[in-house]
Amino acid sequence: MHKLIFALLLAGMPGTALAQAAYCSPPSQPARPEPELPSDKEPKRALPIGSYTLAISWSPQFCASAKGPQNSVQCGGRNGKFGFTLHGLWPDGYGKEWPQYCRPTDIVPRAVIRQNMCATPSAQLIQHEWAKHGTCMATKPELYFNLSRAFYESLRYPDMAALSRRKTLTAGQFAEAFAQANKGMKADMMRVTTTRDNMLSEVWLCMDRQLEFARCPAHQGGAPDSAYVKIAPGPNILNPRRPVPPPANPTKRPGLILDLDPNAQPPAEPRR
């Protein structure tokens, strides 16, 4: 897995990621996001990282109800037509709480926002993911987004058009189809989330501390395997070709070191 990630990082620098889009043309001047700050409801939590979640969203469902200019890149049709988009790579804790808003942050540079808009087509969500989750993992936003985007680009997808035509489809059956599209993945390594009317919303892929896909903890949530799921029709997007094998020693290439600075990790849990 890690060799694949290095290869994806190599393929993804510089330029923008097309990923799960029928087409994507990010705006040359993305909107400047508002600051994302901790609050009484969403406080700073410096907790040790126990695992990770890679969250992807089914864009046709999001756009079915999204309104306003803040969603124009993802849903307006001028800048792209998307399937699954990257919600984010989230550090989890050892229980039901997770680290968040670990450090103060500035606005994500416009160049970094533009580079990631074909994966996460919302400048405000990019700012939110960096402030809430990325600051607990890396010292610079480009390091965090290069890593999360590399994992996102490594995913392959089942035939969503065929699944959307299924008259009966359960969350468990969808997870099995998704796992079969990804070598080494199992259905219990993900959680399928739905709207109140059982429409597919997101897929949460569970990862261990070594950033390998792993069985999800019981408290992760999601729809029960037996729950029926409906899928909003979306664009027909073929799986991209897998990247070329990585160079013999990719860490010697400038910019390819996964500098998830140990000093950027949340502090260790205090002794009691």
From TrEMBL:
<feature type="region of interest" description="Disordered">
    <location>
        <begin position="233"/>
        <end position="272"/>
    </location>
</feature>
<dbReference type="Pfam" id="PF00445">
    <property type="entry name" value="Ribonuclease_T2"/>
</dbReference>
<feature type="region of interest" description="Disordered">
    <location>
        <begin position="24"/>
        <end position="43"/>
    </location>
</feature>
<dbReference type="InterPro" id="IPR033130">
    <property type="entry name" value="RNase_T2_His_AS_2"/>
</dbReference>
<comment type="similarity">
    <text>Belongs to the RNase T2 family.</text>
</comment>
<keyword id="KW-0732">Signal</keyword>
<feature type="signal peptide">
    <location>
        <begin position="1"/>
        <end position="19"/>
    </location>
</feature>
<protein>
    <submittedName>
        <fullName>Ribonuclease T</fullName>
    </submittedName>
</protein>
<dbReference type="InterPro" id="IPR039378">
    <property type="entry name" value="RNase_T2_prok"/>
</dbReference>
<dbReference type="InterPro" id="IPR036430">
    <property type="entry name" value="RNase_T2-like_sf"/>
</dbReference>
<dbReference type="InterPro" id="IPR001568">
    <property type="entry name" value="RNase_T2-like"/>
</dbReference>
<dbReference type="InterPro" id="IPR018188">
    <property type="entry name" value="RNase_T2_His_AS_1"/>
</dbReference>
<feature type="compositionally biased region" description="Basic and acidic residues">
    <location>
        <begin position="33"/>
        <end position="43"/>
    </location>
</feature>
